[in-house]
Write a structure and sequence with these properties.
By secondary structure, the protein is α/β, with parallel strands linked by helices. Helices cover about 30% and strands about 35% of the residues. The protein has two domains: about 50 residues, no CATH class; about 90 residues, Lumazine/riboflavin synthase (Rossmann fold, 3-Layer(aba) Sandwich). The structure holds ligand LW54GNZ2 and the ligand CC(=O)[C@@H](O)COP(=O)(O)O. The site of ligand LTPLIIQW has 8 residues, from strand 8 and helix 3.
């Protein structure tokens, strides 16, 4: 499994104007399903001596017939639920059938890696997507939870191939 995307975004919830960090993790066994497009770009600036810049862009046309799992944390559900809905919507857009997606709720980010690893080892899924949200407060609690979640997801990938 490979780490596909990790993003940090700022987020406001109620009184708490804080930083939320959520992790989205996808792995694809069959990378060849992503068509690789090579585009050449001509630049009209001081770098124009570089005639062409090669850009590699992945494009997924259809994931029909593939099975996916989503592990989603209930903690900070106000954030994770819309992320889950977005993920389900995106799967639909790529022709993944509803019955080919299993959603597993876990209490919080701490549990994501554990469950993702089990699901990965089941060999039932093409990819496992993990969704969690950790909000920075006044203490170092944020770092503990976010770091554990990130390393749990990394271990899940490494241990389930
Ligand atoms: N503080 C956050 C948590 N904490 C809960 C833990 O993840 C865990 O579920 C609990 O300690 C039981 O083992 N979880 C988040 O997802 N986000 C947080 O900000
Ligand atoms: C990681 C958290 O749950 C976070 O909101 C805790 O906030 P605080 O550090 O103020 O206790």
């Amino acid at each position: 499994m490979k780490k596909f995307c990790e993003s940090k975004v700022s987020n406001e919830i109620g009184d708490c104007n804080s930083f939320a960090n959520w992790i989205i993790y996808v792995s694809f066994k069959e990378v060849y399903r992503f068509g690789l497009r090579i585009e050449k770009e001509k630049r009209n600036d001081s770098f124009s001596q570089t005639l062409a810049v090669r850009q590699l862009t992945g494009s997924l046309t259809s994931a029909e017939g593939l099975r996916f799992a989503i592990v989603v944390a209930r903690f900070n559900e106000i954030i994770t639920k819309p992320l889950l809905e977005g993920a389900l919507d995106t799967f639909k857009k790529y022709s993944v059938k509803e019955e080919d997606v299993d959603v597993v709720w876990v209490p919080g980010c701490f549990e994501i890696g554990l469950v993702a690893e089990r699901l990965g080892k089941s060999r039932k899924y093409q990819a496992i997507l993990c969704i969690g949200a950790v909000i920075r407060g006044d203490t170092s609690h944020y770092d503990a939870v976010a770091n554990s979640a990130a390393s749990g997801v990394l271990s899940a990938g490494l241990n389930s191939g």
